[in-house]
Amino acid sequence: MYDQLPGVLAGLDRVAVADAVCVRADIADRRANDAVGRARDLARVAEEAGIPEVAASLRAAADETAANATAVDVTVRAVERAAADADRAADQLSYATQQAKVALYGVPIASGAQ
Fold first, then answer.
1. Residues 29, 66: contact at Cβ < 8 Å?
2. Which residues contact 83 (CB under 8 A, 6 or more apart)?
3. N or C: at which end does the chain have fewer Cβ atoms within 10 angstroms?
4. CB 106: neighbour CB atoms within 10 A?
5. 114: how many CB neighbours lie within 10 A of its CB?
6. What does the DSSP assignment read for the chain?
7. What does the longest C-alpha to C-alpha distance in the chain come to?
8. Quick one: pLDDT at residue 92?
9. How far is the CA of 92 from the CAs of 42, 77, 87, 95, 110, in angstroms?
10. Based on C-alpha coordinates, what's the Rg of the chain?
11. CA-based end-to-end distance of the chain
């Protein structure tokens, strides 16, 4: 049991890092979307004020920021799907391992034992 402790602790560390990354991504996404909205509003004001070059600059920056926010969202969703796939695969492997032990040793293995 003690030999499994480093792996468990490393797993917990990865979970904490993943959670922190997701929180950071959520904050960045919200900030980006807020900034995009403000920039587009100001671009309309600049356009109405007869300063099209400022409006164009704001729109270009807003478009780039929106694209970056979308990339963050797509990446987070991909990580969530990959994590779910890995979790399902681990469950399937655990089941297969238990079945192999039954076949090899001829006795049922208690649930959760490895």
1. no
2. 18
3. N
4. 7
5. 8
6. -GGGHHHHHHHHHHHHHHHHHHHHHHHHHHHHHHHHHHHHHHHHHHHHTT-HHHHHHHHHHHHHHHHHHHHHHHHHHHHHHHHHHHHHHHHHHHHHHHHHHHHHHSSPPPTT--
7. 84
8. 94
9. 54, 23, 9, 5, 16
10. 25
11. 11
Contacts of 32 (CB under 8 A, 6+ apart): 65, 66, 68, 69, 72
Yes or no: say if 55 and 40 are a contact pair by the CB < 8 Å rule: no
Amino acid 5: pLDDT: 53
Tokens of 86: 């890995």
Q: What are the Cα distances from residue 47, in Å, to 33, 61, 65, 67?
A: 21, 15, 20, 23
Residue with the two structure tokens 């990580």:
79
